[in-house]
Design a protein that fits this description.
Strand content: 5-15%
Number of helices: 14
Structural class: alpha/beta
Shape: globular
Strand order of the largest sheet: 1-7-6-5-4-2-3
Oligomer: single chain
Helix content: 25-40%
Length: about 375
């Protein structure tokens, strides 16, 4: 294989053991908690909690190539990736900045757990770079953002974030879960550290929980230490499933990009729908950014119906293809109301301030027939308004 293969080839071949282990085309599962270390060198100790078994090493190498980073570490969940990263780059007395529309779990960790450790955060408007300098302190060490926000699918001024961080020697951290490296590769755009809930698109099959962090070797070494210390390591069998799922990432995400765009256009024109949130639509306020920076707008759509909560409940009762379940990024279409799932930990006042209504419907588009989904939604929306 050539030194710098194209993305689709790297998905399959990057990080694979060479030579193949006993000729196995698929990497075997090394279901062993520990490994022999005959020479007694501490650096040679391999142990599941340290995240350095053959399954971990192959997966980390693949992820680093896909996101264009020096190194990577996989974790037991997306929140393990987020918490380990922030605890590695921040210390008591430090301050960091984050855009205000964070995923609910991240928001809770930042506003409650880090605050108890003496690490302060200032939430800012991601579309108002002129206000960020006021938020910055001499103790500001990081800026945390998401490529696309969940559940309103906003695309903040990511280029301004990179410029701001470089100007002030601040570590830029981005959660790239919703975009995936198929649609956006943050390190190529100047970000320092990239995070994923690998539970979602990277794995793509709704059957594991995992996370990933990619970035400079010095940062990853510190993050890996936190992961091991706090017990956030992933097991070898989950590594194997994630490793396998990643190989079809481009095929899945590109179908989901196209399908979600078609479905978003259908929803935008439907008389029962009052508003659609999808950055691939020309009507979306951030569509110009999405077109300029992304190779696709992703597989997540959120929308609101005329009739509010009662209309949303009728839609959920009638829809047949989507599973009524949280999470996203799998091969099957899922539907949920964020006020009851991802953002239920926020108060009603906080959700209102962020623009997340109780009636908001979020759909994660799978890889089913686009026409079948549209037909299902046509029937489901018939009396939803």
């Amino acid at each position: 294989m050539k030194r710098n293969p194209r993305f689709e080839t790297a998905l399959i071949h990057a990080g694979e053991p060479q030579p193949r282990i006993h000729g196995a085309v698929a990497i075997p599962i090394f279901q062993s908690a520990t490994f022999e270390n005959r020479d007694g060198d501490p650096a040679g100790v391999r142990y599941i909690r340290y995240g350095n078994t053959p399954n971990h090493n192959a997966l980390n190498a693949k992820l680093a190539v896909l996101e264009g980073g020096e190194a990577a570490v996989v974790t037991a969940s997306g929140m393990a990736a987020i918490s380990s990263t922030l605890l590695a780059v921040l210390a008591p007395g430090d301050h960091f900045i984050a855009h205000r529309n964070l995923y609910g779990g991240t928001h809770g960790f930042v506003s409650q757990d880090l605050a108890r450790l003496g690490i302060e955060c200032t939430f800012v408007d991601g579309d108002a770079p002129s206000t960020w300098e006021k938020a910055r302190r001499t103790t500001t060490r990081a800026f945390f953002v998401e490529t696309i926000t969940n559940p309103l699918l906003e695309v903040i001024d990511l280029e301004a974030v990179v410029r701001f961080c470089r100007t002030h020697a601040i570590t830029s951290v981005i959660d790239n879960t919703l975009a995936t490296p198929v649609n956006y590769r943050p390190i190529e755009r100047g970000f320092d550290i990239v995070l994923h809930s690998a539970t979602k698109y990277l794995n793509g099959h709704s059957d594991i929980v995992a996370g990933a962090v990619v970035g400079p070797s010095k940062h990853i070494a510190a993050i890996r230490e936190k992961v091991a210390r706090f017990g956030g390591s992933i097991d070898p069998h989950t590594c194997f499933l994630l490793h396998r799922g990643i190989k079809t990432l481009a095929l899945r995400v590109r179908h989901q990009n196209a399908s979600a765009l078609a479905i978003a256009r259908f929803l935008e024109e439907h008389p029962a729908v009052s508003r659609v949130h999808y950055p691939g639509l020309a009507s979306h306020p951030d569509s110009a950014r999405a077109r300029a920076w992304f190779e696709g707008a992703g597989g997540l759509i959120s929308f609101e119906l005329h009739g509010g909560v009662s209309a949303a409940e009728r839609f959920f009762a009638r829809a047949r293809i989507p599973a009524w379940a949280p999470s996203l990024g799998g091969v099957e279409t899922l539907m949920t109301r964020p006020s009851l799932t991802s953002h239920s930990g926020l108060s009603a006042e906080e959700r209102h301030r962020l623009g997340i209504s109780d009636a908001l419907v979020r759909i994660s588009i799978g890889i089913e027939s686009t026409d079948d989904i549209i037909e299902d939604f046509t029937a489901s929306l018939g009396g939803a308004g």
